[in-house]
């Protein structure tokens, strides 16, 4: 089974995460940041993987440390659960419409972290979630997972819809990329290694 679990404790956050790439349940998210919980739930359910997150962060400051640190741990768990990456598709791409907004994600589980994010949000906050933390989450996740990640909101009006489209697209692209493909012998690289 491709699964991994981790507890991480700092002076800013205390985080407990379990990931199973080969199960679709349970998905249970509790970070104290409602909108972020909503996004991670969509991320996991569209990604078709099981994800349990319990985070206690310094929300009396703001949601920055909590969102960033959860991104770090989820990224680490993906890297660990994927192991040597033998047989996985490696690439995934998804367009996701959410009413008037259209989100796009294309990614490569390459071992080379790189983020391209092209998105603008009108609302600075959604509940106690700062919308600039979308970048912080993606940055933390892709660095620690070793993923080349391109994310874009092509158009849209409503900030909630725009961010939701990105997280659903991220889940769907990941679900393709992590899938074991019987046609792929070894790792999907002419180099023979995905670090
Ligand atoms: Mn929603």
TrEMBL record:
Its main location: cytoplasm. One of its GO terms (cellular component) is cytoplasm. GO terms for molecular function: imidazoleglycerol-phosphate dehydratase activity. It is found in: Cytoplasm. It catalyses: D-erythro-1-(imidazol-4-yl)glycerol 3-phosphate = 3-(imidazol-4-yl)-2-oxopropyl phosphate + H2O. Pathway: Amino-acid biosynthesis; L-histidine biosynthesis; L-histidine from 5-phospho-alpha-D-ribose 1-diphosphate: step 6/9. Gene3D superfamilies: Imidazole glycerol phosphate dehydratase, domain 1 (3.30.230.40). The keyword Mitochondrion does not apply. InterPro entries: IGPD_sf, ImidazoleglycerolP_deHydtase, ImidazoleglycerP_deHydtase_CS, Ribosomal_Su5_D2-typ_SF. It is an enzyme of class 4 (lyase). Its EC number is 4.2.1.19. The keyword Amino-acid biosynthesis applies. GO terms for biological process: L-histidine biosynthetic process. Keywords: Amino-acid biosynthesis, Cytoplasm, Histidine biosynthesis, Lyase. PANTHER family: IMIDAZOLEGLYCEROL-PHOSPHATE DEHYDRATASE, IMIDAZOLEGLYCEROL-PHOSPHATE DEHYDRATASE HIS7. Belongs to the imidazoleglycerol-phosphate dehydratase family. This is Imidazoleglycerol-phosphate dehydratase. It comes from Halolactibacillus miurensis.
């Amino acid at each position: 089974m491709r699964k991994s679990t981790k507890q991480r404790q700092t002076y800013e956050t205390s985080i407990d995460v379990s990931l199973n790439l080969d199960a679709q349940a349970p998905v249970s998210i509790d970070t104290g940041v409602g909108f972020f919980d909503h996004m991670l739930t969509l991320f996991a359910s569209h990604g078709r993987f099981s994800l349990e997150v319990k985070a206690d962060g310094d929300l009396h400051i703001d949601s920055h440390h909590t969102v960033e640190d959860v991104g770090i741990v989820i990224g680490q768990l993906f890297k660990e659960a994927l192991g040597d990456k033998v047989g996985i598709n490696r690439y995934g791409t998804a367009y996701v419409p959410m009413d008037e907004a259209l989100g796009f994600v294309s990614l490569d589980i390459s071992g080379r972290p790189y983020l391209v994010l092209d998105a603008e949000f009108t609302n600075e906050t959604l509940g106690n979630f700062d919308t600039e933390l979308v970048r912080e989450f993606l940055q933390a996740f892709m660095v620690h997972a070793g993923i080349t990640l391109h994310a874009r909101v092509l158009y849209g009006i409503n900030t909630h819809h725009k961010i939701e489209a990105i997280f659903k697209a991220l889940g769907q692209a990941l679900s393709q990329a992590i899938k074991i493909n019987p046609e792929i012998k070894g790792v999907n690289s002419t180099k023979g290694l995905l670090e």
